Amino acid sequence: MTDTQEKIVNLLLANKHLSAAKIAEQLELGSRSIEKNIKKLKEYGILIRHGSPKNGYWEIVDRDLQ
Questions:
Q1: pTM of the prediction?
Q2: How many CA atoms lie within 13 A of 64 on its CB side?
Q3: Per-residue pLDDT reduced to its tens digit, 2-53
């Protein structure tokens, strides 16, 4: 996992309702960069999105990260 991906996971552990745009804002990165990293985290089986883009939330699946 990259440094950026670790930061994303840490933010989502603190608030599972954050959007990619809010994560990008907090990390001072582009939203496209965050979306690519989130896609990788989903491929690794670390993140799962539940619900709609507007009202959904993230689940951290890898218990070692919680």
A1: 0.88
A2: 4
A3: 999 999 999 999 999 999 999 999 999 999 999 999 999 999 999 999 998 8
Contacts of 36 (CB under 8 A, 6+ apart): none
Task: Name the band, by pLDDT with cuts 50, 70 and 90, for residue 62.
Answer: confident
**The tokens of 47 are what?**
């993140």
Q: Distance between CA atoms of 57 and 25, rounded to whole angstroms?
A: 18
**Interacting residues of 52 by C-beta distance below 8 A, sequence separation 6+:** none
* Burial of 60 per CB tally in 10 Å (0-12, 13-18, 19+): middle
